[in-house]
Amino acid sequence: MSKDLIDIRQLSKEQISSFFLQNGLPKYRGSQIYEWIWRKGVTDFNMMTNLSIELRSLLINKFIIKNSQLVCFQKSKDGTIKNKIKLYDGNYIESVLIPSNNRTTACVSSQVGCSLDCKFCATSKLKRMRNLNFDEIFDQIVLINNQSIKVYNKSLSNIVFMGMGEPLMNYNNVIKSIKKITSSDGLAISPKRITLSTSGIPKMIKKISEECPKINLALSLHSAIENTRNKIMPFTSNFPLSELLDSVKYWFEKTKKLVTYEYIVWKNINDKDVDIEALINFCKKSPCKVNLINYNAIGDSKFNNAENAIITKYVEHLKKNNISVTIRKSRGHDIDAACGQLAFK
Ligand code: SAH
What we know:
Blueprint: E1 6-7, H1 13-22, H2 28-39, H3 53-62, E2 63-64, E3 69-75, E4 81-86, E5 92-99, E6 104-107, E7 111-112, E8 130-131, H4 134-152, E9 158-161, H5 171-182, E10 194-198, H6 202-211, E11 216-220, H7 226-232, H8 241-255, E12 259-264, H9 273-284, E13 288-293, H10 308-320, E14 324-328
Parallel strand pairs: 1-2, 6-9, 9-10, 10-11, 11-12, 12-13, 13-14
Antiparallel strand pairs: 3-4, 4-5, 5-6, 7-8
S-adenosyl-L-homocysteine binds next to strand 10 and strand 12.
């Protein structure tokens, strides 16, 4: 690969157009190429069939598209498909296609590995290598959309940032990818169909409330007791619950949308009455919903799902206090594609 080639996806439409003008070619060629790259997701200049062979070779000699490639995939008995994707520099990530009756969801990664250290998550055991570039996030969606059309005859309807990595630790690229995904120049997917899940970086939650108020926000709470949360998610000792609360209040103020608290109930960790009370008190402080998540085992004996009776108790108490609560079904468990299981098994 020649070092002099320019990664065309890092250029704006105007920059591409001015390249054509400089080469004595019409400016509209810039828009055409831009459309191939971002609306059609094409990663090979030779597939840009409305360009002449000469024009394609001009592009091939000057530019490169640093695209990601689908290496292999595994299909779960519930239809979920886990994909292993190779990035241009040889790193790998995983992304998941989750079909259901009324929607088709892509679960995308934001980092190679993860910056955080949640004790119950398989991805945190991997070394964090680097942030994904915005176009590498975009590629995952194009790849999964093509896969969904091929396998299920349906295009993607929803996108969740719940794969590998902490999206708010790669803020700029995540925002840029969301802008690309939602823009009419890109995939034109409604921001209402995008959910970003974060472990909770208060300053960044405030920032995203201003920059992307139309997406949905999910927050991995897992405990409303400071000490417990610090033990299972050690990085949170830098971000007290009071600051987190401040940021979700800000989210509601700016967006008028409810944050969803993601919450796993584990045996002997957060299965007591005080845990339920703490959660209810926390929920009452700012408008929210609670999503109870089934724990997907990652081979650590300290973490085990609580008894069903405890989950029922959580649900009853939340409902009694008028807090909306749902239970998230685990998908793709048999192929290690469920939440928190992405670690190249
Ligand atoms: N870093 C982001 C997004 C990735 S994790 C975040 O923390 O929100 C997506 C969701 O899966 C989070 O709610 C996370 O807490 C949850 N999760 C992690 N490990 C899990 C496991 N083993 N079983 C079930 N959910 C898990």
